[in-house]
Design a protein that fits this description.
4-stranded antiparallel sheet, binds 3-(4-hydroxy-phenyl)pyruvic acid, EC 1.3.1.12, ACT-like_dom_sf, 11 strands, PDH_C, Prephenate dehydrogenase, Alpha-Beta Plaits, alpha/beta, binds 1,4-dihydronicotinamide adenine dinucleotide, prephenate dehydrogenase (NAD+) activity, 51% helix, 380 residues, Rossmann fold, 7-stranded mixed sheet
Length: 380
Amino acid sequence: MSARTGPNGKPPVVGIVGIDGAYGRWFARFFRERLGLRTTGCDPALAASPTPRELLGQCDVLVFSTPIRHTAAIVDDYVQAAGGDEAGMLWLDLTSIKQVPVEAMLRSRAEVAGLHPMAAPPKIGSLAGRVLAVCQARVDRWQGWLAHMLDSLEADCVDVVPAAHDRAMALVQGLVHASHMTQARVLRALAADAGGLPLLHALRTVGYELDLTVTGRLLSGNPAIYEGIQFDNPHVLPVLRELAVATGRLRDCVADGGEDARRALRRDFIAEPAALFDAGELASRSHGFDRLGYLLADLAERPCLSVYLPEDRPGSLRELLETFEALGINLASIHSSRTPDGQLHFRIGLDALPVALDTLRKAVEDAGIGRVLEASDAAG
Ligand SMILES: NC(=O)C1=CN([C@@H]2O[C@H](COP(=O)(O)OP(=O)(O)OC[C@H]3O[C@@H](n4cnc5c(N)ncnc54)[C@H](O)[C@@H]3O)[C@@H](O)[C@H]2O)C=CC1
Ligand SMILES: O=C(O)C(=O)Cc1ccc(O)cc1
């Protein structure tokens, strides 16, 4: 039996419930293009979509890629529609919470694994460099195929049971998102009176910049996900209560204003939380903050040129740099970066230019090594 084949010795057909959504589309492509499998799916957003019964009849692996709030009820519909015929299938889901969806899938007779990618669908065709939580709830004959599928995803897989996943996510996602939504709310209330966002941005610190990056991502994302992460993981409410208590205590210390209150702030909000981490970790995180500060400064550097090197071969970067050398141009920074479309390129920050930027641009293109990206395409 090859790694591509399922327990019956044939390559499985994969059905995706929610195939028109962000991850549904990404996984459909992954199964088709990376694993060479036939895929099908359903989605109410599509003009024509099979019913659960029809979809079940067409596939061997079923992937639920549906809104957090509705996944369990949708799974229940499929359990009803399958009526026992799902024995022998593999059911997977991608929901950001795991206990409720996995329990729902376990009410079927299928083999079951819950997955949670810790990132939005990437622009590239694998989850390389991303973490994937894996809850192997009832996997037996599909073990080999699932292992092959997870290998092909190239993610950093972390095996975890659903309850532990949800508890961890209440902090990894619930707390982090709550803090940033709260920051956004406070900015909305107070930024105008503090001079407006442009002034705040002009006076930015690295911490402000990093936090605002997370906040900006959250506010421009799919609100159903951020709502579901807060409302549909039962471990989030206690986290929010603790957050409110901590914020209230901090406020009370500052309102008190006395020396004891200052000592309390240092003890309760700095010294005691610091003791949670070992010294090495704190030092390396603090260094990481410095590195991100340099990175942000480099990425803000003007003038700059973003160059796509189509030939992925040793020596092409050196050839590119020779063009700069020939024109007597000193580089201030160079980073491999990605455009908003995911295209890999080199972003080169430049010191004072002895030639016009257009001349440099033309020299790079004439050398035939790379293509200069428009600033709007490279987005900084
Ligand atoms: N987008 C992200 O950044 C991440 C999403 N996830 C999880 O992946 C799952 C899907 O998320 P997205 O693709 O981003 O959401 P999405 O909203 O883009 O897609 C969900 C799709 O499900 C469809 N749908 C709703 N009811 C349905 C039904 N009864 N039958 C079939 N399809 C139905 C919707 O029409 C929509 O196309 C969610 O559970 C989310 O928590 C996990 C990690 C990251
Ligand atoms: O915006 C990003 O990149 C995210 O971090 C998205 C995200 C949303 C939901 C998840 O369950 C996991 C990741």
